[in-house]
Write a structure and sequence with these properties.
The protein is of the alpha/beta class and 290 residues long. The chain has helices spanning 7-16, 33-42, 60-68, 82-88, 107-115, 131-140, 154-161, 171-179, 219-231, 237-243, 251-260, 274-289; strands at 29-30, 50-54, 71-76, 95-99, 120-125, 145-153, 180-188, 193-194, 201-208. It has two domains: 7-208, Rossmann fold (3-Layer(aba) Sandwich); 219-289, Orthogonal Bundle (Helicase, Ruva Protein, domain 3). Helices cover 41% and strands 18% of the residues. β2, α3 and β3 form a beta-alpha-beta unit. The protein binds S-adenosylmethionine.
């Protein structure tokens, strides 16, 4: 039975192992059963599912996951947490604990081996200092994913959901929305964690698109265009791209492509939709690789 969501039991485990929180690993443990239930519910986990948990901490959410899923792999970087996890998860025979850095693991191989190439569900209360590399790593490595249900900093959840014209709209919004449909499931205040983080948090579910929403000749080229456009937000798109060393197109090529799309030469990148970035990328790529 899941027992750790209760703060008293969490404190007892921390004391038993004389555990010291490591700030550098973004350790804020969940101590609210309603939030834990909400995350597991939003992830729609069934006994058919293989779940990858990133950063299990002392195993609070892992207990819930083990009860709902067929099998769970939990990857934890802090070696001091491994004996604790072996203790708190000893009642479950469907858990595998891996002591490693999630950013260094070959996730394609892991999920292929453990789930025979079937889509996996990722669930995590993420360490906030590496939210973006974790999410982008999951998407860009083309691991077969069904959904990613994660706790992130509230502002990051807002950026993932933002559309053109909003101040939160940027490269992360476009990357997430290219791969998945984002949906905020809950806002979570600092008092649901131990220790309390300085920022508000939100649970967001990213449901992987079955078919990509736009077709691009080169994903890599489109994302370098997107990154370069938002690196210089205040500049026009033409100037922003022209100033970026990684963009191989001339001012004239960019202006001509925008003209073909019916966009003014002084348009800013932050007003373009994903479809427009894809169209621009395809026009430039096809014009120069012909
Ligand atoms: N899941 C637990 C909970 O909800 O109580 C802990 C969440 S805490 C916000 C983040 C966890 O991720 C910590 O246990 C931390 O040690 C772990 N972590 C940090 N960086 C990591 C990395 N690169 N790879 C794997 N785990 C990491």
């Amino acid at each position: 039975m899941a027992t750790l969501g209760n703060p008293r039991n969490t404190i007892a485990i921390l004391k038993k192992y004389n555990f010291n929180f490591q700030k550098k690993f973004g350790q804020n443990f969940l101590i609210d059963t309603r939030v834990l239930e909400k995350i597991v519910q939003a992830a729609e986990i069934t006994k058919d599912d293989y779940v990858l948990e990133i950063g299990p901490g002392i195993g609070t959410m892992t207990q819930y996951l083990c009860e709902c899923a067929r099998a769970v792999t939990a990857v934890e970087i802090d070696k001091n947490l491994i004996p604790i996890l072996r203790d708190t998860l000893r009642a479950y025979n469907n858990i595998e604990i891996i002591h490693d850095d999630i950013l260094k693991i070959d996730l394609n191989r892991l999920t292929q081996e453990r789930n025979q190439g079937q889509p996996v569900k990722v669930v995590a209360n993420l360490p906030y200092y590496i939210t973006t590399p974790i999410i982008m790593g999951l998407f860009e490595s083309h691991v077969l994913i069904d959904s990613i249900t994660i706790m992130v900093q509230k502002e990051v959840a807002e950026r993932m959901q933002a559309g053109p014209g909003s101040k939160d709209y940027g490269a992360l919004s476009l990357a997430v929305q290219y791969y998945a449909r984002p949906e905020v499931v809950a806002n979570v205040p600092p008092n649901c964690f131990m220790p309390r983080p300085k920022v508000g948090s939100a649970v967001i579910r990213l449901t992987r698109h079955k078919v990509v929403p736009v077709l691009v000749s080169s994903e890599q080229r489109m994302f370098s265009l997107i990154r370069a456009s938002f690196n210089q937000r205040r500049k026009t798109l033409v100037n922003g791209l022209n100033n970026a060393s990684e963009i191989p197109y001339t001012k004239q090529q960019i202006t001509e492509a925008l003209e073909k799309m019916g966009l003014p030469a002084n348009v800013r990148g932050e007003t373009l939709t994903l479809e427009q970035f894809a169209a621009l990328s395809n026009l430039l790529y096809n014009a120069t690789s012909a």
